[in-house]
Amino acid sequence: MKITVAGAGYVGLVTSACLAELGHQVTCIDIQKEKIDMLQKGRSPIYEPGLDSLLEKNQRNGQLNFTANPHHAYSKADIIFIAVGTPATHDGLADLKYIHVVAHSIAHCIEKDVIVCTKSTVPVGTNDLIQEIIDSRKPPNLKAEVVANPEFLREGSAIIDFFQGDRIVIGTNNSEAALIMEQLYLPLNIPIIRTDIRSAEMIKYASNAFLATKISFINELANICEKVGADIQEVANGIGHDKRIGPHFLNAGIGYGGSCFPKDTKALVQLAGNMKHPSELLEAVIKVNNRQQTLPVLKAKETIGSLKDKKVALLGLAFKPDTDDVRESGSLTIVKELLKEGAVVRAYDPFAIPNAQRILGNTIEYAYDIRFALQDADLAIIATEWDQIKHISLKVYGTHMKDPIVIDGRNCYPLEEIQKYPITYISVEGLTFIMLDRMKR
Ligand SMILES: NC(=O)C1=CN([C@@H]2O[C@H](COP(=O)(O)OP(=O)(O)OC[C@H]3O[C@@H](n4cnc5c(N)ncnc54)[C@H](O)[C@@H]3O)[C@@H](O)[C@H]2O)C=CC1
Ligand SMILES: O=C(O)[C@H]1O[C@H](OP(=O)(O)OP(=O)(O)OC[C@H]2O[C@@H](n3ccc(=O)[nH]c3=O)[C@H](O)[C@@H]2O)[C@H](O)[C@@H](O)[C@@H]1O
User: Fold this and answer.
1) Could you identify the atom of ligand 1 that is nearest to the CA of residue 121?
2) Which class for 152: exposed (0-12), middle (13-18), buried (19 or more C-beta within 10 A)?
């Protein structure tokens, strides 16, 4: 099958590399010339475990190529995947400008019948719009069938998610297009759910909104646990054993970040509002998350008072481990709050420093080594649960910090372990208990 993927971002690159791995002839197009130049030279613009080797192998064997030329990309394709960004506009709606440009481009370039498959997360009704744009501009003798095929991969495990995902959703009323898409995905042996286009679009928003709700729920509960002296990790374990609740996505912490949960929850709230059906539940989910991201700085002030001129080691900049993505990362909120308080910040991250630097510039210092970040710090805040942070010897806090105070926004260390060290440790559970405990030691 000749496949074109529009967009060389996280979704576009993973889709391109994995479809090439399945033996298809894949062309990936992006409007950013410098990205394409980099990819053509064999370098990936993003960090995603396992992606580099798949890109390298499939470029070398001729299954995968990159271009910035729309005619070259679209004219002969059997299937075109749209994987361009749909970022939030100022009012929280999904910005569809990139989608519109791709749809126009496809309409003008195709020279044969084609299936256009939307992987980008788009509000309900967008695929109908894409169909209209293409139908009104394409050569009249050609057929283009638009199919909704939302993507559920997670950054950091995107390749595994492609090959071992929980489900594939194909939204179309056209049985011929559905069959072709089902054939494409058949080798993966993943359950395929076939729906109409609008339901497929809604499944994507509903999935992300449900997961975000689970996170805000557990964070809300963590804050109540702290007040009443219960341990949120024990509580999560206890409720997670109920099959109807499940053990996943119950990690309390500094809230959800990333390029999707924040934008997709906001987009769904806006969509509901536009339909005169305000979503009170999702509004609360967002509010809880915003508050949660500022919690480490509130804890810091409660613990050491004024943060003015205090040296803070921020451990982790990525919105989660195993990615270099800092979009909507909780760390960015923490930095903003710390700088507002007059603190001096030195941040460690194994992969995300270049992306963070593009946003934060020289407002903070950067450290590629945890020890350097901790050196002489008054306080450490853990924002991302990287293995490099979880597996560090806890002695290091004592040897490098003045009087070690660690605010752990990701519950990285077992309490029985941390209690062996002279560290004031404040995690997203039982603050008072742990602080008193240290004083007793
Ligand atoms: N990042 C993720 O983990 C997931 C993202 N999604 C959704 O997939 C979509 C893409 O997300 P990301 O890959 O994170 O975006 P991204 O921002 O990393 O990449 C998008 C790429 O599209 C390119 N682009 C823009 N206009 C173009 C055009 N006319 N032709 C060709 N390329 C064009 C951009 O230059 C950019 O490289 C979004 O709708 C997102 O919500 C869905 C599931 C997972
Ligand atoms: O639409 C998308 O882009 C994707 O969004 C999420 O994937 P992703 O954002 O890559 O990462 P997650 O693992 O879901 O984590 C999102 C955020 O929630 C936080 N989180 C996650 C789980 C948890 O228990 N607690 C928690 O705070 C993470 O730290 C992170 O900041 C979804 O999991 C994917 O299915 C979806 O395709």
Assistant:
1) 39
2) middle
Which entry of 18, 225, 260, 412 is annotated as an active-site residue?
260
22 to 9, 84, 210: CA distances (angstroms): 20, 22, 31
Q: From the CB of 259, is ligand 1 less than 6 Å away?
A: yes
Task: Give, using CA atoms, the residue closest to atom 33 of ligand 2.
Answer: 154
Residues with CB under 6 A from ligand 2: 121, 151-155, 208, 211, 215, 249-251, 253, 256-258, 260-261, 319-320
- Is ligand 1 within 6 A of the CB of residue 102? yes
Between the alpha carbon of residue 81 and those of residues 30, 175, 193, 261, 286, the distances in Å are 12, 18, 18, 22, 31
Write out the residue limits of the CATH 3.40.50.720 domain(s) in the chain.
2-195, 196-441
CATH domain 196-441 topology: Rossmann fold (3.40.50)
- Give the Cα separation of 106 and 71 in Å (integer): 8
Distance 261 CA to ligand 2 centre (A): 7
Ligand 1 within 6 A of CB of 6 = yes
Ligand 1 atom nearest the C-alpha of 29 is: 31
| Nearest ligand atom owner, CA of 240 | 2
Q: Given this model, what pLDDT does residue 440 score?
A: 47
300 half-sphere exposure, CB direction, 13 A CA radius: 32
| ipTM (interface pTM) | 0.99
**Which CATH number is 2-195 given?**
3.40.50.720
Rounded average pLDDT per 10-residue block, the chain, 441 residues: 97 98 98 97 94 96 98 98 95 94 98 98 97 98 98 97 98 97 98 98 98 97 91 95 97 96 95 89 97 95 95 98 97 98 98 98 97 97 97 95 94 89 83 47 47
* Annotation marks residue 260 as catalytic: yes
Q: C-alpha 207: how far from its chain's center? A: 14
